[in-house]
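Chapter review: from sequence to fold.
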Amino acid sequence: MTAIYPSPDSERFMSDIATLDKLSSELVAMIDNGAPLKDLIALKDRADAILITLTAYAESMLSTDTENDVYLKAMGEAEDASVRFQKAEDSFLRAVAKRSDEFSDPALSPYMKYLDDILVENSHLMSPEEEALAAELSRSGSSAWERLMSTVTSTATIDGETLTELRMKAGDRSRSVRKGAFEREVKLLSEHKQAVAAALNGVKGTVLTLERKRGWSDPLDRSLFSSSITHEILDSLLSVIRSSLPMFRDYFRTKAKLLSLDNLDFFDLFAPIGECHRTYTFEEARDIVISSFSAFSPAMGAFAENAFDKKWIDAAPGKGKAGGAYDVFFPTAGESRVFMNFDGTYDSVSTLAHELGHAFHDSVVRDLPPSLSTYPMTLAETASIFSEMLVFDHVLSFSDDSEALPVIESFVQSASQVVVDIYSRYLFEKSVFEERRRGEISADRLSELMTSAENEAYGDAVGIKHPYMWAVKSHYYSADFSYYNYPYAFGELFALSLYARRNEKDFFSIYKSVLRNTGMKSASECAAIAGADITKREFWQSGIDVIASYAERLNGWL
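The C-alpha cell string follows.
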C-alpha cells in the first residue's frame, strides 16, 4: 500500500487532501466564470481521481484493522474532505443541467451517457443547502452506523473466536464442527443484535428520508438507475430466478444425499463433498490463477502475475480484520489491490480469481477518467465471474473423478448462493424498506423477515435457516447503494453467457470491448456489444442452463 501513500498520516496523504480542497475551490470559480463544459469535466475528473484514491485508501487500511486509531483518523479526514467537496460537486451537477446546449460539442461525444445521467441526478437533487447538510450529517449518520456494524461484527468474540473465524468453519468436513460454529455464531449475533439492528434502522431510515426528499419514489428506482438497468430487465432476471428455484432445491437434496443426510441445514450449505478434500497453499493458488488466466489470454495472465509479484493481495485472516473480500482501484496510482481471507479451500482460490477479475477490469479502463470508467455493479461482476470460470475449467482439466466432484459441487454451491441466497437478500431488503417506512424495526422482527425471505428462496430443501444473516452482510448497511444484491445474479448469468463463447475467434477483443465500455454505455448497450439482449428471459435462462448442467452431473455420484 506504500505505493499509494507511505502511511495514513503521511505528508503525501495530507497534501492530497489539501489539493482536493484547492481543486474544489477552482471548480466553483470556473463554474461562476462560465468556463467551457469540457474544461469543467476535466477538472472534476482530476478532483474525483484524488477523492476516490483518498477514501479507497483509508477504507482499505481500516478494513485490515478496524480498531486502529491511525486508520480511523485517516477515514475521518477522508470523509471530511469528501463532505467539503460535496458543495463543488453539487454546483457542477447543477451547472451541467443548465448547459445542455453544449452537449453537441464533438469533444463531449464520449461523455454522453455521463452527461445524460447527470441530468437525471440533477432532477433528484435537493436544494444546495439541503444537499450540503445531508453530506455533512452523513459522517455522524449513515456512515457512522455503517462503521458501527463493521466494528461490532469484526471485533466481537465468543469463546475467543471472532465472527470471521466462526464463519470460516462453515466449510469444515465435520458436521459437528460446522454446527457448533453456526450455533456460536447465532449466539454471538444474538448478543449484539440490538446494536446492529440500530445500525440497520439508521441506515435504511436515512435512505428513505433522503430518497423521498430527492423525488425518488422508491430506493429500488434509485438502485436501478445506479445499476444502469430498467425495471423490465430486473423483472426478466427475477422471473427466471424464481422459475429456477425448483432446480436449485433438487441440487440441495442431492447434496444432502451426498453428505448422507436426510436434509440440509443452513450450516451444511458450504460443507465439502467427496472423499478428496484437497487444500491449496497460497503459492499453488497463485499458479492456478496465472495459468488459467494465461490460457485465455497471455495479457490477462501477465496482469495476474504482476499483481502477485507486487504484493497487491492482502490474504491472511487476522484479529480485527474485516470479513469478506473485495477489489479496490486507486485512480491516481492506476493500480488495484485485493482484500480477502484465504483459507486454503478451492473456494478461496475461486475468490482470489474473482477479485483479480475485478482488478483486470480496472486495468482495462485505467487510462480513462473517472467520468468514463466508473461502472455499475451489474457490469462489474461480469469480469469477476468470468475469471472464476477460467479457474473452474482449469482445475477440472487436471482433476480425476474424485477431485472433480468437489470442484463441480463447489461451482454449483457458489452459483446457488449467487442466485438463491441473493434472491433471499433481495426479498429481505424489499421487506425491510416496506416496514421501515412505518417506523423502527426490532431486531427480532428483522430476524423474522430474514427467515421468511430464506424460506421463500430455499423452501423446505434447507431445514434450519440463519435468522441473523441480516447482521452478517455488510451490504445492507451501505446508504450509497441500496439493493446491493441482484447485481451479483446479473453478473453471474451474464458472465456465464459470455464465457460459453470464450473459444470464438477474437473473443478476447469482444470481452475487452464490453469491459472497456461499462462506464460509457448502459448495461443493455454493453450486452449488445456481445450480441446479447438482456430484456429477454431466454438470455438469463441460458445462464441458468449452464448451472443446471453441472447440477445434473452431480447425480452421477449418487
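Two observations follow directly from the output. The CA atoms of residues 396 and 404 lie 6 Å apart. The chain is about 65% helix and 5% strand.
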